[in-house]
Design brief:
alpha+beta, 386 residues, 13 helices, 2 domains, two-stranded antiparallel ribbon, 6-stranded mixed β-barrel, 12 strands, 49% helix, 20% strand
């Protein structure tokens, strides 16, 4: 009976309910796009760090976990390796560069230039070609995005530009491998070179000179199997001077603007859901006020409050579900048409959470409507009360 009453009214007033479903669809699109944009921006910022084959990252002390500000000497690597529970460590240098393929502006690509130690944590797996072999080779592993965009393959030469002092410097590197397309760092695709080569060609205030100790930015630490991550971190912290040790997730949250950006987008999603609750609640309350006499008739002929309440909830659920489904289809269709340069990433878990929340805001927004429907007095509704 309740299902019949709910579907019958929706069908008889399908134009009105369809228009309201479009409103719910727009709210759904906004929520899903905001979630996808938040994930896309976060992913473009953190991809490289999140995929490190390590559990801990070592920074210079008193730099607020800023990877670019951190400077660690090569001599500290041995000290970190000696700590109990440490399986292996990898030096990582972070800088920026520009790939030059021709004089045309569209054939240039800003990249993150990352110096790594061959065979150590920090070097991503290679999908095509081979890995780096020595610390001084003029070789490079490139992100799959770059390989596809510019049709670059292992064996090709790559010219990159960096700024040293006030001069532009150009270096030719041989592409030996291609890694997967998920290696962005600070919104730029990454290329990987041996860390001594990185120290020579990276952008820097003064041209590279021979130094008593090679300087890089951070150290990736892979701990031994069965060891507790926090305990090993404490051992490293107490056993090596002038460093700060943290886990991967904390290092990601310390990336420039990462936390503020995610908090802003998450707040937008929350407010959009709150607006959805108010809009849905307002619409169904107006609908309920318009059909008080009909509810009075139903109660007068013996329909129980339970049937009226269930019919009202079913009606809200039907309209909300249709709106959310329509909004989801529109969202994924538009996402397929958006250029790949826009960082839109749909995370299955986040999409499921957002969709569930959207489905729940309908009944939540309609609670007042249900209460109003149950409280209708037949005689008063029909104007027969004295």
């Amino acid at each position: 009976m309740a299902f019949y009453l709910a579907t019958k009214e929706v069908w008889r007033n399908r134009g009105r309910y369809f228009l309201f479903s479009l409103v719910i669809a727009l709210i759904t699109t906004l929520v899903l796009f905001t979630a996808a944009l938040a994930e896309g921006l976060a992913s473009a910022n953190r991809e490289y760090l999140s995929k490190l084959d390590a559990q801990l990252i070592v920074f210079q002390k008193n730099v607020d976990l800023s990877a670019n500000a951190s400077q660690i000497g090569e001599s500290l690597l041995t000290s970190i390796k000696r700590i109990e529970g440490v399986e292996t460590v990898g030096a990582i240098g972070l800088s920026s560069a520009t790939i030059i393929l021709s004089s045309a502006q569209q054939s240039q690509q800003d990249v993150s230039l990352i110096g790594v130690e061959p065979g150590k944590p920090g070097l991503p797996p290679v999908l095509l070609g081979r890995n780096l072999k020595t610390t001084r080779a003029r070789e490079v592993i490139i992100d799959q995005r770059i390989a596809q965009k510019f049709d670059i393959n292992p064996g090709d030469n790559l010219t990159i530009k960096t700024i040293q002092g006030t001069d532009e410097k150009f270096f030719t590197l041989k592409v030996v491998g291609v890694t997967d397309g998920g290696q962005q760092y600070l919104f730029r695709p990454s290329i990987f070179v041996p860390y001594r080569t990185w120290d020579e060609i990276r952008s820097q205030p003064t041209p590279s000179i021979i130094k008593p100790d090679l300087i890089f930015n951070i150290v990736a630490v892979k701990i031994s199997a069965g060891q507790d991550t926090s305990e090993v971190a404490n051992r490293i912290q107490s056993g090596v001077k002038d460093i700060e040790v943290t886990d991967i997730s904390t290092a990601i949250r310390a990336l420039p603007g990462y936390t503020a950006q995610q908090n802003t987008l998450n707040t937008q999603q929350i407010f959009t859901l709150l607006i959805g609750v108010l809009v849905i609640g307002g619409f169904f309350q107006i609908q309920m006020l318009q059909k008080v006499p009909q509810i009075g008739v139903l109660k007068a002929i013996g329909v129980s409050n339970a049937i009226v309440a269930i019919a009202t909830v079913l009606q809200i659920v039907l309209v909300t579900t249709f709106g959310v489904a329509l909004g989801s289809v529109v969202t994924f269709t538009l996402a397929a048409l958006i250029p790949s340069t826009v960082p839109i990433v749909f995370n299955g878990t986040l999409v499921a959470i957002a969709t569930t929340a959207l489905l729940l805001i309908g009944p939540l927004g309609g609670l007042v409507t249900v209460r109003l429907a149950v409280s209708v007095e037949p005689l008063i509704a029909l104007g027969l009360s004295s």
